[in-house]
Amino acid sequence: MSSNTKQKAGLPGKQDLEAMSIFRYELRKFLRVSEEVCNAAGITTLQYQLLLHVCGFPERRWATVGELAERLQAAPNGTAALVSRCEAAGLVKRKTDKTDRRQVQVHLTAKGERCLLKLAAEHKTHYGSFAWVFGEKHA
């Protein structure tokens, strides 16, 4: 199949495959470093991600279990269990929403915030190819 035919069929060309390969390689390197950084701090990468998403939710410093499940791309019941483990570790606390008592907010504790900021600072130094996350141009 010629490269012209591939493009018409929507198949990736060689440049696309090279770009995808580089992206996956950089992503895997980052994830491996993230695992090492989190494990050294005594938490899992999922616990770190949960802390990050609680604090990083747009325009507020808390999130619901459903919102966290979406951000983690996980089932709500699994996310609720993860919140419980983080709560037992003293990293987060649940609060009932004052306007909708059916809604539960997940907030960082002081310990959780300290842990998040320390780990986020370490992660930020490893973003490398992902500098665009911070609005920086990649060299």
TrEMBL record:
* InterPro entries xref list: HTH_MarR-typ, MarR/SlyA-like, WH-like_DNA-bd_sf, WH_DNA-bd_sf
What top-level branch of life does the organism fall under? Bacteria
Q: Which GO terms describe its molecular function?
A: DNA-binding transcription factor activity
Q: Which Pfam families match?
A: MarR_2
Q: What is one process in the GO biological process aspect for this record?
A: response to stress
Which segments constitute the HTH marR-type domain? 20-139
Q: What is this protein called?
A: MarR family transcriptional regulator
Q: Which organism is it from?
A: Caballeronia temeraria
